[in-house]
Amino acid sequence: MEATPLQVDPEVIVDGVNLMWVLIATFLIFFMHAGFAMLEAGQVRSKNVANQLTKNLLTWSVGVIAFFFVGFGVNALVGSVTGGGEFESIFAALDSSSPNDWVSWLFSAVFAMTAATIVSGAVAGRAKLRAYVSYTLLLAAVIYPVVTGFTWGGGLLAINDGAANGYIADVIGVGFSDFAGGMIVHGMGGIAGLTAAWIIGPRMDRYNSDGTPNVIPGHSLTFAALGTLILAFGWYGFNVGTASTVFAVEGGELVLGAYETVGRVALNTTLGMAAGAIGAGAVALYMTGKVDTLYVANGLLAGLVGVTASANVVTWYGGLLSGLIAGAQLPIVFSLVEKRLKIDDVCAVFPVHGSAGVIGALLLPFFHVNGFSADLLLAQIVGVTVIGVWTVATTAVVFGAFKAVGQARVSSDHEREGLDVSEHGVDTYPEFGQPDVATDGGEREIRTDGGERFDESRSSSELRSDGGAPNDGEIKMVTAIVRPDRLGAVKKELAEAGAPSLTVTNVSGRGSQPAKKGQWRGEEYTVDLHQKVKIECVVADVPAEDVVDAIREGANTGEPGDGKIFVLPVESATQVRTGATGTDAV
Fold it and tell me: Would the pTM of this model clear 0.90, i.e. be above it?
């Protein structure tokens, strides 16, 4: 008996594999939001971290809803009105003939949300949450969909097979080319961020009265580097995922679809990424004499942006050079924005996304696998200009309106206090050393060193050879300012000395320890306030001299900056829980 070959409809295989591929790429792109959150959180002050994280969370939450109800339909509407795109309804995403049609919507949505979240990094540290969220809603519903309608939606800048061309593309004879959104997503987001930062104005103390800039370093290079690598990982979904039809059916047989260029896309993405980091690091070394870590990280991303528009159609050396140039321009453009334009772009979103996106789109005709085309270069120049003008105009109108009614940025008091507290009522890094609490309601005092209070029957004369009371019967406060890394040793010494409970606070200050030079994004600044911890210990039964000796033993490194110890008299003390006063309270 002969085996009958299994009959499989190739269309079923094509649909299944293609849907799965698009969804995997979509999930990778969504994961880029974790990278944006870490990258931006690392580049802001510690007092603004929760605010930046909240903006990233709300960017997705508010933006994706707006894109579902309105943005997806606006994209089709603009494509139809300005070219040969197909339009059914402004609410097209709400009514689909097939459930799997929403996969296409979701893939479009993660691109839209990437453009939206870029803006938050430019206006960090001073933008009101309501202004930013409102702008995000408008960007997802109108501003970004108009750009995609002009291009991917078959509109103004597109050449369409079997349909009317876009008005401008028809005149030029060539359509604007952007494979995965180097200009449409990243360039647009970077330009929007720069415009918003310009309208809102710089952070307090960012510039002196004579216009010279002050460096305001972010709080964690670790977060920034981690965010960079997460973004780079997700970028493979962004670029490689755009080659989104793995298989197609021709003559009843399976053939490769857009996947036929996936090797080139993956290679150019990788080469551009690496070259961008090298280019930025090399220029930073030339400008400052040092390889700046943040410039290397930002350059890696700029290199990725630089090849995103062209990864499918440029040669391998074109991908490498596009990334190298995009990375190399970053320190130069950031310096221009900061020192000439006086725009406070906190996370360097314009040189990373904006100018890198523009450069990548304009370099495409020079490295095209089919050779240079003057018509294609003209189409790229026109496309970049149209997208840039639309983005600047709409962003300026939105943030200008908020500024006109006093809702664009927080008050100066709130800005100094930090947006974590003023906008969200939280502290991302709560002070450690919280007071100890007796949870059993008993009379016994809880101590941080695990020891016990002397019994009432125990004579204090046991502590002194002359029979006198410690500290001459007075209450003393011992206050020490020491290095944070010596806190553990100090606590150990205090425990061995039998010291009672202590309070520890994060502080900063300066004394005999010499000022140091720090560097943030290639610029030096003076670190004249050093991070310290303040230890406060109130004693009655334990001699203050013993506490001083214990702290000195634990804190001493023999180097300038070890700190100071102060002994102050305490007039009185009252224990809140028991009402005990004087030495009994201590």
Answer: no
